[in-house]
Design goal:
By secondary structure, the protein is of the alpha/beta class. Helices cover about 45% and strands about 25% of the residues. The protein has one domain: YqgF/RNase H-like domain (Nucleotidyltransferase, domain 5, 2-Layer Sandwich), CATH 3.30.420.140. The chain is globular. Its EC number is 3.1.-.-.
Length: about 140
């Protein structure tokens, strides 16, 4: 069973997919969206669901450090609910606190240039979200 991991931002959605055994996450792309028009991403997400035979989507939930959910977290929950309804697929939220910072550290330690980091940071954050979920299932 493959799982799709999403790091939902205001302008991009980082996408990662699990292997068929559900052990590892690989980044596959960053979907660009304009002006927080999340519905623009649905056709591409459906293509990825079909292409990879995805059965579940894990959406990163950006909680505040004290555990509360702010406006960005509420937007992610709304997005996940819409994906579940419109694409008819199981979705769940996954605490993504610090996933983008962890992705940034990995890219810095790999000596990736600032310009290249900007292009892959969302995809890498999606990998961190999905891998955290997959590890919790082991």
């Amino acid at each position: 069973m493959r799982v799709l991991g999403l790091d939902v931002g205001t302008k991009t959605i980082g996408v990662a997919v699990s292997d068929e055994m559900g052990w590892t996450a690989q980044g596959i792309e960053t979907i660009k969206i304009a002006d927080e028009q999340m519905e623009q991403s649905y056709p591409r997400l459906q293509q990825l669901i079909d292409e990879y035979s995805v059965e579940k989507i894990v959406v990163g939930l950006p909680k505040n450090m004290n555990g509360t959910i702010g406006p960005r977290g509420e937007a992610c929950i709304e997005f996940a609910d819409n994906v579940k309804e419109k694409l008819n697929i199981e979705t769940m939220m996954w605490d993504e606190r610090l996933s983008t910072m962890a992705a940034e550290r990995v890219l810095l330690s790999a000596d990736v240039s600032r310009k290249k980091r900007k292009k892959v940071i969302d995809k890498m954050a999606a990998v961190m979200i999905l891998q955290g979920y997959l590890d919790s299932k082991q």
